[in-house]
């Protein structure tokens, strides 16, 4: 090959970190654009990325973490996988990186009055989704008993400065309403409450979903609880707070309390971001250009996709993954 001739994207490699919706979309788009891909996923499940598994232009590293990164012309990325108790490390040289690392829930111990980690029947919305997918049905985690009342608490550690994150987590309202509908459709006799600050259902079809929940007698109360505690001499929980619309106090006996936790960058990724030269903004998210769904980070050759940039729905994350792949392709072609 003529060394003075500009190289095409097919001669270059892109590492995509994260195989969720955004990372899978980015990897697929890069393959379509003719680029080689190293797809790194911390968990052993590849989810949507299964469709590109086996493609000769994609090296899939499941159950693997990026533990170190530096840049000297190319990016040198050290990864580690644990198999059969043995740690295996390797270094991959790539020409561009797409961060599709997603977000993780805040530490619920920051808000102890809601009881997550202290009361077995207080769970996160992620645990509620897993329960609805399981064959076991809707049961109290403490003893496997039936649930007669479930209470969802919104904005737990989001839209706050000191005990969480300052921004809206975007997907929580839709997730809670969807779970509430599924509970009522399975068992209309279960009482379901959603305690909210604002209901934000701006996505496609979400307003109709909100109306469907009300038709199923899901009860919406404006006002977070002040306390979730055990009822005296009973195995149930008591959710206490103020309805800020009616200006009256409420007490709701509950078998299950579901917290919609705020979402933040995973602290385990911060060293990776620093190694790549990626800065965070004032809200603690990956800094990007001010335009909507911008994939450009503060570091040349490093792009961001999906909720690693900001909380968003799956459709937006997939679209941003494709956008990041095209931006990476343009970057590679210009070098």
Mean pLDDT: 91
Order of helices and strands: EHEEEEEEEEHEHEHEEEEEEHEH
Radius of gyration: 22 Å
CATH architecture descriptor of the largest domain: 3-Layer(bba) Sandwich
Number of helices: 6
Our count of domains comes out at 2
Give me the secondary-structure category.
Answer: alpha/beta
Strand content: 25-35%
CATH topology of the largest domain, by name, is: FAD/NAD(P)-binding domain
Looking at CATH, the homologous superfamily of the largest domain is: FAD/NAD(P)-binding domain
**Uncertain ranges:** 1-9
The biggest beta sheet reads: 5 strands, parallel
Outline, from the CA principal axes? elongated
Short description:
The protein has 335 residues and is of the alpha/beta class. The chain is built from six helices and 18 strands.
What are the key terms here?
335 residues, five-stranded parallel beta sheet, disordered N terminus, FAD/NAD(P)-binding domain, alpha/beta, elongated
Description of the structure:
This protein is an alpha/beta fold and 335 residues long. It has two domains: 9-103 and 265-333, FAD/NAD(P)-binding domain (3-Layer(bba) Sandwich), CATH 3.50.50; 106-263, 3-Layer(bba) Sandwich (FAD/NAD(P)-binding domain), CATH 3.50.50. It is built from six helices and 18 strands. It has helices at 21-32, 125-133, 172-186, 206-215, 270-276, 314-333, and strands at 13-17, 36-41, 58-62, 64-72, 74-83, 86-94, 96-99, 104-105, 122-124, 149-156, 191-196, 219-222, 225-230, 237-243, 248-254, 256-261, 263-264, 302-304. It has a five-stranded parallel β-sheet with strand order 3-2-1-7-18, covered by helices on one side. Helix 1 links the parallel strand 1 and strand 2 (36-41). Helix 2 (125-133) packs parallel to helix 3 (172-186) and helix 3 runs parallel beside helix 4 (206-215). It is elongated, with a radius of gyration of 22 Å. The model is unreliable at 1-9 (pLDDT under 50).
């Amino acid at each position: 090959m003529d060394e003075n001739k500009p190289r095409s994207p097919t001669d270059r490699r892109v590492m995509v970190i994260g195989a969720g919706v955004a990372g899978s979309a980015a990897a697929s788009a890069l393959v379509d654009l003719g680029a080689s891909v190293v797809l790194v996923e911390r968990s052993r499940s590849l989810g949507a990325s299964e469709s590109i598994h086996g493609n000769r232009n994609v090296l899939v590293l499941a159950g693997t973490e990026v533990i170190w990164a530096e840049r000297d012309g190319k990016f040198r990325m050290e990864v580690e996988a644990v198999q059969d108790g043995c740690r295996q490390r390797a270094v991959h040289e790539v020409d561009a990186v797409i961060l599709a690392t997603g977000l993780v829930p805040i530490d619920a111990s920051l808000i102890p009055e809601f009881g997550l980690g202290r009361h077995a029947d207080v769970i996160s919305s992620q645990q509620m989704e897993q329960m609805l997918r399981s064959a076991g049905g809707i049961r109290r985690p403490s003893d496997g008993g039936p649930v007669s009342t479930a209470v969802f608490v919104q904005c737990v550690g989001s839209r706050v400065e000191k005990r969480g994150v300052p921004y809206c987590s975007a997907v929580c309202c839709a997730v809670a309403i969807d779970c509430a509908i599924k509970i009522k459709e399975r068992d209309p006799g279960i009482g379901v409450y959603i305690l909210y600050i604002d209901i934000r259902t701006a996505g496609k079809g979400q307003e109709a979903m909100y109306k469907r929940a009300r038709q199923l007698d899901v009860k919406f109360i404006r006002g977070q609880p002040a306390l979730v505690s055990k009822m005296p001499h009973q195995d149930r929980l008591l959710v206490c707070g103020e309805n800020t619309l009616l200006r009256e106090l409420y007490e709701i006996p509950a078998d299950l309390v579901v917290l919609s936790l705020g979402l933040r960058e995973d602290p385990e990724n911060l060293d990776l971001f620093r190694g790549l030269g990626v800065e965070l903004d004032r809200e603690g998210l990956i800094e990007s250009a001010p335009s909507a769904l911008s994939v450009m980070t503060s570091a040349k050759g490093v792009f961001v996709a999906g909720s690693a940039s900001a909380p968003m729905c799956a459709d937006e994350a997939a679209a941003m993954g494709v956008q990041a792949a095209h931006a990476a392709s343009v970057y590679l072609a210009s070098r």
